[in-house]
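FW: tagging you since you asked about this chain on Friday. Here's the raw sequence from the shared folder, copied in full. Didn't touch anything.
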Amino acid sequence: MYQILSWIVRYLLIALVYYFIYSIIRLIYLDIKAINEKEARGPRTPYLKLVNRKERLDFEIDELYDLHEETTIGRGKENEIQIVDQFISTRHVRIALDEGQYFLEDLGSVNGTYLNGEKLQDVAKLKDGDRIGLGQVEFLFVKEEEEEED
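HL: got it, structure written out here
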């Protein structure tokens, strides 16, 4: 009896190790895939990158969202970025381009918008690497600076 139990435990541990290795390889693959998608989009286009792990969310969401002159995010279909999260308002937040800079504005959402962990009280200027939190989702604002040529 002890020998059978010992064999079962061995095989379970081996399976667990293989599953762990599979998970690591899958994460590496997803990161490489996201990098390749970004390179295919072309450089210098500001975008939002999902910080959360997609599989932990109970709704569909993309890894990357390109930003336009004005981009609204919310649950409603009229938004450029629609996120069907119960904690996000119908029109939650706006990201607008003004004089070459992007600005973040909460549109009176119930649960608020967070910029780098602090609740957004007024319009805020975005810079590369800022974290935007709304509902269960957190995005990284990426704006690659143009290289100046001499």
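FW: Residues 105 and 123 are 5 Å apart (CA to CA).
HL: agreed, and The first strand starts at residue 47 and ends at 50.
FW: great, closing this out.
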